[in-house]
Design a protein that fits this description.
Helix content of chain A: 25-40%
Strand content of chain A: 15-25%
Oligomer: homodimer
Strand order of the largest sheet of chain A: 3-2-1-4-5-6-18-19
Number of strands of chain A: 19
Largest interface: A-B, 48 and 48 residues
Radius of gyration of chain A: 22 Å
Largest sheet of chain A: 8 strands, mixed
Chain lengths: 382, 382
């Protein structure tokens, strides 16, 4: 009998996603694994139990985690969940490791080998495993849909017999994967789109999507692109100059979408209360960084706030989870692609190569300890 | 001193629109009228009192209606409102006259000359006064935004490193102004769009927007186009054939938007409970006819209903009012264009030519009686 892979139903109330799809289940079964899916695990993503059984899985219950050699999850397991896992089990999830030392220590104590999918290096080989990209792409799309939903005008210019409705001026702050998809989606809907980022390289990408790039383009800006493709934190001076330019720009916008994140740090504040106050009534701001402290002054996680001057600030939680049926399919594929590299197909069993660069980059806990160099120190006994 | 035009704040809780814009106010003031706008009348459409005063209006209160020679409204005045109007005043609004004989009688009794903007003939001269078109256009746009908001996947096809998200299959039933804009908006968002209508002429329009036409194209279909551009009610036989074809098609759709209305009649039922049950969980239906009885079995006015099989049926009220800031600007322009034809610019006063075809087509009540041929009989004392 083969090893067991377990896919639980996520326990977080805001989590509609699931860590497997019928497609990935079928492939894992094909490798010789017993795949057990907790009943209802796919319900929030429009995958019914029967879809999983057709793919070769068995439908089980939460307690089946105890037999699993591999657990595939969306979110980091809670302490309660960890109690039900077998020591030595591999757990793959979005682990949210920064600032959560106690949770990592609990994972180590449970004896599981935990992998943080969001630490996957951004190299060609790992592109298919990049959960940040696959989920941010959908978040960028949904941010524009959410903005259009809250906005009290049409986004496209409409020329009618009774006059012309002007196109919505839309400004995207932070042009990573989410920002690029937000630009593309707003452009699809006919908005006039501008965008900004601290990295000069994206200027060309922004232009290629039909949007205009807005930034203080000084020396620091030109040197700011980092190897990892992430934005580094800019100097106070640069931030002040950029803030002045964007403050002026924001006052003229109908819709602003912010997507700026710095790994392991709180999200940078991009929009002050004064900037919000400068906007016209009916304008909409979507803060995709709201779960990381927020880019926007006054954004409230999980709420749509209307300010005194009539500006709506949208702070939805788990935005990829708002298009869960799409997000789960891509996330499941990301997990599968990484897990596949750790499967010994002859032995039909998990075989983790601890020298592999993907394993080294993502492995948080192993053999009872926090092993990841970035997090091991914080977890040392004090 | 000139005549007075009054623009009240709408009293219906679901009505965010207003019957004037700063632009139309400015023009009316330019004709020599005193324009009085009730305080807060534009608040739901993002027009503040100051915008109206800058355009030359005076801000007043509801009681100022008593002095008005012309009242511009969005919805038919209630009996309470009519009590505050001067006998002989002209009232322009969307009067919703069908099946509302008591309300028309009350309007007659109040002595006002009431014009139903939705009865405007669809001729070239009156295009700029066509409130059905201007508002349906925005409703068609918003229907797609509302569908995308409720839908748990992305609409466009997305090709990513982790696989392809398929485009949403979207079906538009009823291709008038709303349907055409729904097709255009769904296409903008990257959906795969099909559409149907009982009129053969729209087949070409559908194709020109990049969508595919779905219909039983028999003799009756070919003869079904009416002079007014509206759909006439089709035979029971045709409806059965068309229902069989669409039933098959609907079962494969992700999003369906229905827009079928027949003036003066309840909306035709296009989607049965069985058809809803045939759709996959997560599918979304938007019923734009929900206020007229609905095209969809199970649609509830003002609600988003989720069926037992996980289909969402969206029945928002007053969909143009969901993009009120755009809708009011166009509606105000429609009203202005019609009112302008009834203004004697020398005398700087209203001068209604009761022989004008636009006046004859829209005038419901005059001189204490219901005068419109379509409604006069119902209002006769019994």
């Amino acid at each position: 009998m083969g090893q067991t892979i377990f896919i639980p139903r996520e326990t977080d109330a805001n989590e509609q996603r699931v860590a497997a799809s019928p497609d990935t289940v079928k492939r894992l079964v094909g490798f010789g694994f017993d795949v057990v899916v907790e009943t209802g695990a796919g319900a929030g993503s429009r995958i019914i139990d029967e879809d999983f059984t057709k793919a070769g899985a068995r439908i089980g219950k939460a307690a089946d985690a105890a037999k699993a050699d591999v657990v595939l999850k969306v979110r980091r397991p809670s302490e309660a969940e960890l109690k039900g896992y077998k020591s030595g089990a591999a757990v793959l999830a979005i682990m949210d490791p920064y600032g959560n030392d106690a949770a990592l220590a609990a994972m180590a104590k449970a004896g599981v080998t935990g992998f943080a999918m969001e630490l996957m290096p951004r190299i060609t080989r790992a592109q298919v495993m990049d959960v940040l990209s696959s989920q941010a792409n959908l978040a960028g799309y949904q941010a524009v849909i959410d903005a259009a939903y809250e906005y009290d005008r049409a986004l496209p210019m409409m020329m009618t017999a009774a006059g012309t409705v002007p196109a919505a001026k839309t400004f995207i702050m932070g042009v990573g994967v989410a920002g690029l998809q937000a630009i593309a989606t707003a452009r699809r809907l006919g908005a006039v789109v501008t965008a900004t980022d601290v990295r000069p390289a994206v200027k060309e990408q922004v232009a290629s999507l039909g949007a205009k790039f807005i930034a203080v383009e000084d020396e620091e800006f030109k040197q700011a692109e980092t190897a990892g493709g992430y934005a580094k934190e800019m100097s106070k001076e640069y931030q002040a100059k950029q803030a002045a330019l964007t403050a002026d720009h924001i006052a003229k916008q109908d819709i602003v979408i912010t997507t700026a994140l710095i790994p392991g740090r709180p999200a940078p504040k991009l929009i002050s209360a004064a900037m919000v106050a400068s906007m016209r009534p009916g304008s909409v701001i979507v803060d995709l960084a709201v779960e990381r402290g927020g880019n926007v002054d006054g954004a409230v996680p999980g709420k749509v706030v209307t300010t005194a001057n009539g500006v709506k600030i949208v702070g939805h939680l788990n935005v990829p989870g708002r298009v869960a049926a799409s997000a789960s399919l891509l996330y499941a594929k990301n997990l599968f692609a990484f897990l596949e590299t750790m499967i010994d197909k002859e032995a039909k069993a998990l075989k983790i190569n601890r020298d592999d660069e993907l394993v080294k980059a993502t492995m948080l806990t192993d053999g009872g300890a926090v092993v990841h160099p970035q997090f091991a120190k914080a977890a040392e006994p004090t």
